[in-house]
Amino acid sequence: MPEKSPIMIEAKGLSKFYGPFVAIKDMTFAIPEGQIEAFLGPNGAGKSTTMKILSGYLAASEGSAAIGGLDVRTNRLEASKRLGYLPENGPLYQSMTPLELLEFFAEARSLDGDFVERQLKKVIKQCSLELILEKPIDKLSRGNKQRVGLAQALLHDPEVLIMDEPTSGLDPNQIREFRHNIRELGQTKTILLSTHILQEAEAVADRVLLVHNGRLAFDGSPEDLKKNGSLEETFYELTNYGRPEETKAS
What we know:
Blueprint: E1 7-18, E2 21-32, E3 36-40, H1 47-54, E4 62-67, E5 70-71, H2 76-81, E6 83-86, H3 98-108, H4 113-126, H5 142-154, E7 160-164, H6 172-185, E8 190-195, H7 198-204, E9 207-212, E10 215-220, H8 222-225, H9 231-238
Parallel strand pairs: 3-8, 3-9, 6-7, 7-8
Antiparallel strand pairs: 1-2, 1-4, 4-5, 9-10
């Protein structure tokens, strides 16, 4: 039997409570090396909360999260070396140029000089930043800002990439380009990206995690998700779309 790929992203019983409000409850899944996984669900389903916990930006109320086998709570610095994180509204300093921003993050991460030089050339090419390197970030379009954010997330050459709604606000051409970037990156990295767009999951993902009301409702391939009908029909069924709250599964 072929050896199993190592697990690169893992959640075990993750829950997050804000007083009586349950943001996520008992979220458990494992993503093996080299897989592109879409985190699919309606707005407010708990996707961003889960990703913030996985990336170490938010502490779980219960359960554990690991990147590359490293617990993000007890080994946060080491886990962060393996992780590139692109939040929905990335940490871009508007007065900087893309080049200044990348150099700033390289210094903040204490990256080696020779490595930085190689990686700068690599991410600038990967994210097509050549023509905007010296332009202030606040003058860039939404699509170009996303490319700068992606370059920042890739700068330290992480094994794992987590992206929260990476195509939100982009036009159709920018979405197509970004999806192409994701598929290319998936050849060398393990990727988890959240989206509420069904076509996004179908276009780029090997597997789908569907979350609803803070709970995992489905874990399988895009083909499995639509085997009993269209993606839309299955999505509506699993998220109890349009049904009264009292009829929803607990």
